[in-house]
Amino acid sequence: MRRLSFWLLVLLLHFEQFQSKIATPPLPVLPIPSVAQLRWQRREIIMFFHFGMNTFTDREWGTGYESPGLFDPAALDAGQWVDAAAAAGVDLVILTAKHHDGFCLWPSRYTDHSVERSPWRGGRGDVVREFVDAARSRGVDVGLYLSPWDRHEKTYGQEIEYNEYYMAQLQELLTRYGSVSEIWFDGAKGKNATNMTYYFQDWFQTVKQLQGSINIFSDAGPDIRWVGDESGFAGPTCWSSINRTMLKIGEAGIENYLNTGDPRGTDWVPPECDVSIRPGWFWHKNETAKPLSQLLDIYYKSVGRNCVLLLNVPPNTTGLISDADVVKLKEFRSAINTIFSTDFAKGSKAQASSQRGGKNGGFAACNVLDDDDTTYWAPSEVAGRRQTSGYWLKLGELDPTVRFNVIRIQEAITMGQRIKQHKVYADGKAVVTNGTTVGHKRLHRLESVVHARAVRIWIKESKGPPLISSVGLHFDPFH
């Protein structure tokens, strides 16, 4: 009898050990992001500085015939630019090293149309150098824009000669100034050179050779894509995946595809929403910054729709960010902090339709409340059987005095983007909002304030089991 009891105890211990074994993660749903793409996505807001000859001629597009003598920003302080960005919570800043007019903000060996021919710093200045040094000293990463269209360069329109010229300048920027986190390309062309072919693939491969961890932005990536408009808005459905073979940089008619992405896309190329804080991209004396309400609307429709917001803030003719724009940036950041610093989901009880690996599998519903985007809730799967009724995640026992009007949902995008359709219920009955994709972050800004003891997210359709890393409930007093 004692021997039988002993073996029963051994079997029980083995059973408990088996039960407590951590389940393996599910397989990813391809495509998935690279390390550099993940780091970029988590920045959420980055900043553009459009500065150059147009700043002094009061134009948006220069002619290429402007005299370098016009460029003289007497008080230029790149440190003030980066400080303004950092105060807005930004840790990546991008400079227009050369715009369409061809004027170079660094002393390029390949042209006479640069700061070297200007009176600024006695012709010995280098805006790119001052910009890079200011950013690095403050722990902020840098990016550069080198316009493919050059209205000054005489070889423009001569395919081989101009591509060689452009490549030479690209090599200067990527070898002189240390690590560059993002390089920005567009497909703009002059009307008199419609047959001008840009050797994008040559450029891209050179970029990756010179800067191994860089992200390349263009209409079609390869790492980051344009969102398809300059209003800062992504589509309410927004996939990080596209098929790059379907796109040609600079081609008209691809805007809607870029805006929504492709659920069947084979390439992970997430969208970047570029918009200026002012009506124009360059500084103009008669323009002012957008009101806070408009900036917040842009935030919800960019960051809140699985994108990164690229906000342009143009320095003025003195070489400084205007005081009013600095104030507006601080106001914008303060508003975001006010909305999201308090999460009313904290302290709630998380439950789910199922859990991968059982009770001790490591993919519990409570993972969505732990402020760690490397953990996530994963539902269980039945081998060979497709889930047909959807999955759900519930936050219960909410404080009855709490009110919220923003719902935040985030997927574990390291494992791919999965959610196709979802709904959110309050107290199990009323649908307070519904949507399609989620991705890195989905923000639902509700039309009215909600009081509820429980919130349930129903995943109606997804590519494989949904993996949710975070859920939050917030109050926006500005709405």
Question: Quick one: biggest sheet?
Answer: 8 strands, parallel, barrel
- Provide the succession of SSEs: HHEHHEHEHEHEEEHEEHEHEEEEEEEE
Total helices: the number is 10
CATH class category name of the largest domain: Alpha Beta
Q: How far apart are the termini?
A: 73 Å
- What is the CATH topology descriptor of the largest domain? TIM Barrel
The CATH architecture of the largest domain can be named as Alpha-Beta Barrel
Which geometry do the CA atoms define? globular
Strand order of the largest sheet: 1-2-3-4-5-6-9-10
Give a verbal description of the structure:
- This protein has helices spanning about 1-20, 35-45, 55, 80-85, 125-135, 160-175, 200-210, 255-260, 290-300, 325-340, and strands at about 45-50, 90-100, 140-145, 180-185, 215-220, 225, 240, 265-270, 270-275, 310, 350, 390-395, 405-410, 420-425, 430-435, 440-450, 455-460, 470-475.
- Strand 14 (about 420-425) and strand 15 (about 430-435) form a beta hairpin.
- The longest helix is centred in the N-terminal third of the chain and has 18 residues, at about 1-20.
- Helices cover about 25% and strands about 20% of the residues.
- With about 475 residues, it is of the alpha/beta class.
- The N and C termini lie far apart (about 75 Å).
- The strands form four sheets. It has an eight-stranded parallel β-barrel with strand order 1-2-3-4-5-6-9-10, surrounded by five helices. Strands 11-12-17-14-15 form a five-stranded antiparallel beta sheet, with no helix packed on it.
- It folds into two domains: about 35-340, TIM Barrel, CATH 3.20.20.80; about 350-475, Galactose-binding domain-like (Jelly Rolls, Sandwich).
- The chain contains ten helices and 18 strands.
